[in-house]
Amino acid sequence: MNRMGIAVLSAALAASLFYGQASASAFAQTAPAAVGHGAFPAKVIKTLDSSKLKEGDAVEVETAGSFKLPDGTLVPKGSKLNGHVTAAKARSKGDADSQLTVAFDNLAITNGKTLTIKGAVQAVFPPKEEAAPMMAGKASGAAGGGYTGATVGTVTNDKSGSNMESSSKPEPAADPKSVGVQGIHDLELNDGVLSSKGKNVKLGSGVRIIVRADILG
Description:
Elements: H1 3-30, E1 36-44, E2 48-49, E3 58-63, E4 67-68, E5 74-75, E6 80-89, E7 98-108, E8 114-125, E9 156-157, E10 180-181, E11 188-190, E12 193-196, E13 202-203, E14 208-215
Parallel strand pairs: 8-10
Antiparallel strand pairs: 1-3, 1-9, 1-14, 2-13, 3-6, 4-5, 6-7, 7-8, 7-12, 8-14, 11-12
C-alpha cells in the first residue's frame, strides 16, 4: 500500500475512534446515574388484582415509614410511590399459575418533590396495624417541614455505601433485608414476579411490601 493509502486509512480509523468515544460520552451524559439504592417499606392503598389489571395500568402505593436520602432529603411516611403493571394474568385452563409484576417509576414526596426511581417488589407481608414502626435502628428528632417521627428503610449512598436512618423499635417481619412472601398463603415472589396457584394474584389494601429501588434523582 502506498503512503497516500496508508494516510487515508489512518485518518478513517482515527475518525471512527473519535466518533465511538463521542457517542459513548453522549450516552453517559444522558443515561441517569443512581444517587442511592436500597429497600424501604410501603403499603398497598388500593387492591391490586391480576384478573382486573393489564400491562401498562398505573399503580400507586405509599411509604409505610420515613427515611432519608443520601443528600439528607427526608421522605416522610405516606409519600406516594407510583408505578405501572408490567405483566398481569389470571390463571385459566392450562396455566400453571396466575401472575402479577409491578415496576415503580417515581416517588412523590409530600413536600412536592418528585424523584425518579427504578423499583420492584422485594418482599410481601400481610396487613398490620401501623402503631409500630417498621425497622430497627435509632430514632430521629424533628425533621424539616414540621415532621417529627422515626425513620425507616435502608437507602444508601452509592458512593459511601452507608445506611440511612432507621426506626427506633424492632419489627423483624418488615426488615428491608427480607425477601419473598411472609405470612401469606399460596403466594410466591421470585425476581419481582408475584405468582399464585389460585385464580388470581390479589394484594388487598393494607398489604405491606418492601420495595427495592435505585434512586435516580
